[in-house]
């Protein structure tokens, strides 16, 4: 069972007026059921029984929205057919299907994105790297007349690449992923946000799509890579391994295979003073920081820690 404080005020005045007594009772009954039965993972802090119910209620009404957007949208009354659809959605959520895959929506850095099992669901924790990466790119845009150039590898749904392009209007951004279906999803998100003129997407293994044309020209190379060890994959919650793509999690025998490749392969692309930014798994920060500090390809290393003090992202400046 998982409850969170906002469940006590799940309905606001607009909801109460629209739903009426019968709708309020129906909501309360289903909220009690979700509160009792739903097991919410800690890596999705935006989800509570109440926020899940709001999103599923709106989906049953024909409005697919992210958890965040659903919290900002008044609930409409449902008819009998829609209540049947809602109860089916609630059963699927309790069985472990993520809300983002049910609604087909997930918010990241304020952007309402399409979500599907073709790519990892963007996590709130990844916004730590996104915020710092945006500041690095903004600094370039403010101090140079030519557009800054950024690359996001293992781009998945395109969430980080699109956040960079959206918030730094001068930037030219490239995204790459080894999964063609993930690139299809990222392409749909790019079109949806109207960013196709400044975001180009590529299918390929890590930095393979970026040849001589990018040599020593990249201001920022970022990644939210797989960093779970292969052995740990079987111990992860079924909600993750049963629904999200394994390719987006499996970081090899020790979980750092892609991280180490990025450290080795990024310097030829990075402009002097350009930055490599990577999200890392719990416990991986110290070793990856040490590796970067020892590398002659980088002259400065910055770390970003979560609220518990664990390093969750690392940035290194190229020489």
Question: What is the compact description of this entry?
Answer:
The chain is α/β, with parallel strands linked by helices and 319 residues long.
Folded structure, characterized:
- There is one protein chain.
- The chain is α/β, with parallel strands linked by helices and 319 residues long.
- The chain has 2 domains: 5-103, no CATH class; 125-318, Rossmann fold (3-Layer(aba) Sandwich), CATH 3.40.50.150.
- The chain is built from 12 helices and 9 strands.
- The strands form 2 sheets. The chain has a 7-stranded mixed β-sheet with strand order 5-4-3-6-7-9-8, sandwiched between helices. A two-stranded antiparallel sheet has the order 1-2.
- The termini are far apart.
Distance between the termini: 51 Å
Helix and strand composition category: alpha/beta
* CATH homology group of the largest domain: Vaccinia Virus protein VP39
As for the number of domains, it is 2
Mean pLDDT, rounded to whole units?
Answer: 94
SS field, number of helical segments: 12
* Biggest sheet character: 7 strands, mixed
Question: Which architecture of the largest domain does the CATH hierarchy give at level 2?
Answer: 3-Layer(aba) Sandwich
The main sheet orders its strands as 5-4-3-6-7-9-8
Tally the beta strands. Answer: 9
- The value of Rg in angstroms is 21 Å
CATH domain class name of the largest domain: Alpha Beta
Proportion of residues in helical segments = 40-55%
Residue ranges: pLDDT <50 for 5 or more in a row?
Answer: 1-6
Strand portion: 15-25%
């Amino acid at each position: 069972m998982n409850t969170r404080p906002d469940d006590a005020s799940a309905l606001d005045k607009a909801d109460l007026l629209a739903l009426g007594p019968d709708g309020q009772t129906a909501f309360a009954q289903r909220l009690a059921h979700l509160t009792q039965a739903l097991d919410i993972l800690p890596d999705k802090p935006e989800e509570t029984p109440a926020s899940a119910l709001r999103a599923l209620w709106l989906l049953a009404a024909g409005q697919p929205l992210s958890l965040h957007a659903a919290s900002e949208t008044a609930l409409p009354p449902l008819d009998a057919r829609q209540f049947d659809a809602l109860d089916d959605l609630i059963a699927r959520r309790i069985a472990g299907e993520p809300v983002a895959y049910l609604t087909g929506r997930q918010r990241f850095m304020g952007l309402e994105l399409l979500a599907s099992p073709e790519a990892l669901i963007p996590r709130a924790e990844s916004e730590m790297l996104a915020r710092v990466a945006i500041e690095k790119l903004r600094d370039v845009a403010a101090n140079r007349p030519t557009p800054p150039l950024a690359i996001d590898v293992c781009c998945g749904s395109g969430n980080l690449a699109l956040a960079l392009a959206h918030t730094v209007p001068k930037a030219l951004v490239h995204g790459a992923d080894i999964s063609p279906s993930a690139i299809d999803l990222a392409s749909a998100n790019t079109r949806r946000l109207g960013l196709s003129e400044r975001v180009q997407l590529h299918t390929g293994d890590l930095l393979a799509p970026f040849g001589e044309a990018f040599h020593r020209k990249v201001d920022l190379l970022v990644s939210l890579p797989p960093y779970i060890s292969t052995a740990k994959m079987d111990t992860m919650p079924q909600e993750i391994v049963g629904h999200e793509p394994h390719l987006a999690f499996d970081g090899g025998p020790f979980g750092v295979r892609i991280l180490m490749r990025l450290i080795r392969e990024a310097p030829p692309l990075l402009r002097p003073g350009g930055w490599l930014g990577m999200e890392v798994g719990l416990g991986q920060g110290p070793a990856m920081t040490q590796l970067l500090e020892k590398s002659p390809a980088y002259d400065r290393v910055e770390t970003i820690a979560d609220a518990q003090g664990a390093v969750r992202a690392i940035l290194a400046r190229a020489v």
